[in-house]
Amino acid sequence: MxxxxxxxxxxxxxxxxxxxxxxxxxxxxxxxxNYGKIPLIAKGSKRPRSPMRGLLQPFQPLRxxxxxxxELRTLRNAEWIGGIPQLSGAYIYCGFYLNELLMRLLPRDxxxxxxxxxxxxxxxxxxxxxxxxxxxxxxxxxxxxxxGYSPLLTHDGESDTPIMPNKKYIFDLEKGLIxxxxxxxxxxxxxxxxxxxLSNNDFTDTTTLTESKLLMRxxxxxxxxxxxxxxxxxLQELPLL
Length: 241
What we know:
There is one protein chain. It contains 6 helices and 8 strands. The longest helix has 19 residues, at about 205-225. The chain has 2 domains: about 5-80, CATH 2.40.50.140; about 90-235, Up-down Bundle (de novo design (two linked rop proteins)), CATH 1.20.1440. By secondary structure, it is α+β, with helices and mostly antiparallel strands. The model has no long low-confidence stretch (mean pLDDT about 90). Helix 1 runs parallel beside helix 3. Strands 1-2-3-5-4 form a 5-stranded mixed barrel. It has a 3-stranded antiparallel sheet with strand order 7-6-8. The chain is elongated.
């Protein structure tokens, strides 16, 4: 007896990546509210009269429906939700950076509703041209927390004592963030205030912004391995990442 084809309707989603498939179709990776990142084939979406032509663009919220029991499912319908102006200038490159991060680090079919909501708000804020660095650092931290790769920011990973604002700390791969002691002067160091500000999503202090960028780079590189992000190379002229 054949199993019934699974159908999912009316999911809010963003297109993270797309590639052409044959002459008239695309394969897209979408980030959805309740199903995480999934691959879909959008059959005929490049045909001139297709209702989906020009619709499957990044940084725009969509309401989509799909079907299929295999890893690659079939997009049945997509509707534009609207409400987010098109990204432009440096902001669009930041959007591509975030999309590449999610493509590289998010496993498929693994729901992350908190991260989805954060991504939605971040894209909105980028479209309104809010300050870039706090937006990027905040989403990076949310991503690391969701994946289980963020160290504890409020307590020393070795002694379990509370982080002190005026002390300096280093990142240890096994223990997390630990107090800087003799012999670790050449390591990248972070003020305790930076860690506490990060835990409170507070980027008003310039030192916090500078040091949180270094910490996020260290933590993300642990996840990304030797293969760097292409969007980082594009953004080298913009000192944001």
